[in-house]
Amino acid sequence: MGIEGVNSRIASIQSRIIALQTQKTEPTTTPGQQTTPAGGAGGGDFASYLSQAVSQTPGSGRTYSLDAKGIPTELTAYGNGKIPATALEQVGDTRHKLWAPAAEKLTQMIADAKKDGVTIGITDSYRPYAEQVDLAKRKGLYSQGGLAAKPGTSEHGWGMATDLDLNSKALSWVRQNADKYGFYNTASRESWHWGFKPEKVPGLVTS
Questions:
Q1: b/e map of 118-143 (b: 16 or more CB within 10 Å)?
Q2: Which of 14, 81, 153, 173 could form a disulfide with 118 if both were Cys (CB 3.0 to 4.6 A apart)?
Q3: pLDDT (tens digit per residue) in 63-78
Q4: Neighbours of 92 (CB within 10 A)
Q5: pLDDT band at 83 (very low <50, low <70, confident <90, very high)
Q6: Containing H/E element for 121?
Q7: pTM, to two decimals
Q8: Residue 162 CA to chain centroid, in angstroms?
Q9: Residues 146 and 70: beta-carbon distance below 8 Å
């Protein structure tokens, strides 16, 4: 998560703490008892408010708008294959990077798979324009039977696709669970290619 996302998350948590304090300090009465704040003599402790506020705050702390093709408008302003480092985030402890929300969800998916005894590796992630051109020359265009998208149109160029290193067990797990994290097999001839669909992630896209 970039510094902007961190600041947004902090602001969201602070606003929720204030809301919780307001709710919990309203007096409640029971026949035969004195009026006391609902949160206890001190109106509840800060740690309790903080815990509840964090649990109610979405992971990214932000929502995003999409263009007609389902691409976040903050990315279209840069251009495919021209996404700056500030808009990308590292996936776990790997060397790979994706658009920040996609990176966060992929990191979570890899961690959850590991809990099930499944190892998910990564062979490719964000792909700059120059790399798209090189790949198209070497592997041919997908539309012509090759394995590369037309340079400037690749999902990798938006930082919204990853190529995974999967054995049969991992592939089965990913096929059953990837949609829970917003990832879909968006290239029918490539079982390793998984694109991120932000509109499929609850609370991530502004309606």
A1: bebebebbbbebebbeebbeeeeebe
A2: 173
A3: 999 999 999 999 999 9
A4: 15
A5: very high
A6: strand 121-124
A7: 0.71
A8: 13
A9: no
How far apart are alpha carbons 163 and 143 in whole angstroms? 19
**Residue whose tokens read 């990191």:** 107
Take residue 199 and report the two structure tokens written for it: 């509109």
Type of residue numbered 80: N
Query: DSSP alpha helices (H): ranges in 151-203?
Result: 168-177
Q: Which two tokens stand for residue 2?
A: 């970039």
Q: 5: exposed, middle or buried (C-beta count within 10 Å: 0-12, 13-18, 19+)?
A: middle
**Residues 43, 157: Cα–Cα separation, whole Å:** 51
Task: Spell out the residues 6+ positions from residue 205 whose beta carbon is closer than 8 angstroms to its own.
Answer: 63, 64, 65, 66, 198, 199
